[in-house]
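yo

u said u wanted the structure for the complex thing, so here. seqs first:
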Amino acid sequence: MANIFSLPNQLVESEIFEPLLASENILIERIVSTGQVTPEGEWYNQEKDEWVVLLQGEAKLSYADGSSLILQAGDYVFLPAHEKHRVDYTSSKPPCIWLAIHGNFQLK
Amino acid sequence: MANIFSLPNQLVESEIFEPLLASENILIERIVSTGQVTPEGEWYNQEKDEWVVLLQGEAKLSYADGSSLILQAGDYVFLPAHEKHRVDYTSSKPPCIWLAIHGNFQLK
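structre next:
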């Protein structure tokens, strides 16, 4: 059975994006970060809503309004479509394990 | 910020179902189990698809064909709509923390 906390012995240099379940309606993915951040001056500006939980590690998320959040293991956030954000820090020891759910959630 | 691993000091007798994000399209919920199981002879037979990960604790899931799975922290499973299943065991020390995503995923 697949386990969300299981990591390869040797982590690659880049972030790992692994779809765990994918369809036109939804993408559930695991992301493993080991120090990578959003490139300087760039923002995520996503077409879809995202709900994301950091399951292991520590990370910093910043928003276009200048605010930011330090995420510890277990912290979760909702990122509506087109809410610009960037990742300013991800821990490498331990690696960050994110579980992200992307879709058009049609919240009212 | 909300944390998926944070539990109340005093857990109630019953299972706790907490919607973390809910719309017509999707339900992301945390479930906290402390020994509860599906009542004898009953099955979950859900209208929607479910992807679920056990984030803490240990549990046993059984299927109508007689097969079963022991879930450890981090194990995840996909339960298509109408795949009959039941929960035969949930640990109370530590409590089981599940993260479940329900929706019509329209997998092909």
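Chain A has a mean pLDDT of 95. The interface with chain B takes residues 1-6, 20-21, 23-26, 28, 51, 53, 55, 69, 71-78, 99, 101, 103-108 of chain A (CB under 8 Å).
cya
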